[in-house]
Amino acid sequence: MKKPLVTALMTAALAGLGTAPAAALGPDLTSAPAAAQAPAAQPRAKVKAVDFAGTVALSNCSGSVVRPPSASSADPALVMSNGHCLESGMPGAGEVVVDKASSRSFSLLNSAGRKVATLRATKVAYATMTDTDVSLYQLNTSYAAIESRYGIRALPLSADRPAQGTAIKVVSGYWKRIYSCNVDGFAHRLREGEWTWKDSVRYTAACDTIGGTSGSPVVDAATGKVVAVNNTGNEDGERCTDNNPCEVDENGTVTVREGINYAQQTYGITRCIGAGNKVDLTLPGCELPKPSGLRS
């Protein structure tokens, strides 16, 4: 996990990050001029600009309003963050939280990073720190209502696994800062203290995320879809300790990458969302960890 927020606040104050503007975004890609005598080429699709619209700030973390491919506009909206950002504290290894009442509030941001509304949860639909590090809150309002009232659409949740080299943006609603880098690769297992995560996204060094960025959506810069949720980084070069995750490959070899940060892939979540935008861990293909009563 990232540093405790009070430590992060001190770090950010010293570094001048607390009021840092969003990272500058590059120009949209357009088609190159056609060669002389060659048939006119079809224009390439423009890269979708990534901003703060649809992201949220929690009391201690970042997050986003996300919409799975199967969700309808009338469905109750979902907010995604990290499992370690739960208001009730971090779930232990093997613990899975489902359908737990919650009235947590979230500050909804517009494209410029300004708060436009307070959203409220009715429950924690799902949360865990086993295999992944995610929390999904169900709101008391629908996607359609959010768009109608505030002009803000949810961030689409990708059903596809990101590829190595993908250009990504880590969008922190808490800090109102956007980090730009690429998917450097994947950690077969990422171990931190008592927790182990599977197939984690490893960033290139440019995404030097800090405390408070936990739960930020990781957005594919080309499609604008969420492909992961930011959650941790190795701060001090220690081996597999809290705030110092280590990578463990298929042969058990441990690698420590000081200063490198990670996220948890989210495409698997889309396989666990059923009718009414409800988390259904019994759906075919759903591989999210289950509470003990649902385990086969």
Descriptive account of the structure:
The chain is mainly beta. It has a domain at 55-157: Thrombin, subunit H (Beta Barrel), CATH 2.40.10. 6% of the residues lie in helices and 35% in strands. It contains two helices and 16 strands. The protein has helices spanning 5-15, 143-150; strands at residues 55-57, 62-67, 76-81, 96-101, 105-109, 115-128, 134-142, 155-156, 167-172, 177-192, 195-203, 217-220, 226-233, 246-248, 254-255, 261-265. The strands form two sheets. Strands 1-2-3-7-6-5 form a six-stranded antiparallel barrel. A hairpin with a 2-residue loop joins strand 10 (177-192) and strand 11. The longest helix is centred in the N-terminal third of the chain and has 11 residues, at 5-15. It starts with a helix and ends in a 31-residue tail after the last strand. Residues 6-45 have low confidence and may be disordered.
Explain the layout of strands and helices.
Blueprint: H1 5-15, E1 55-57, E2 62-67, E3 76-81, E4 96-101, E5 105-109, E6 115-128, E7 134-142, H2 143-150, E8 155-156, E9 167-172, E10 177-192, E11 195-203, E12 217-220, E13 226-233, E14 246-248, E15 254-255, E16 261-265
Parallel strand pairs: 2-8
Antiparallel strand pairs: 1-2, 1-5, 2-3, 3-7, 4-6, 5-6, 6-7, 9-10, 9-12, 10-11, 10-14, 11-16, 12-13, 13-16, 14-15
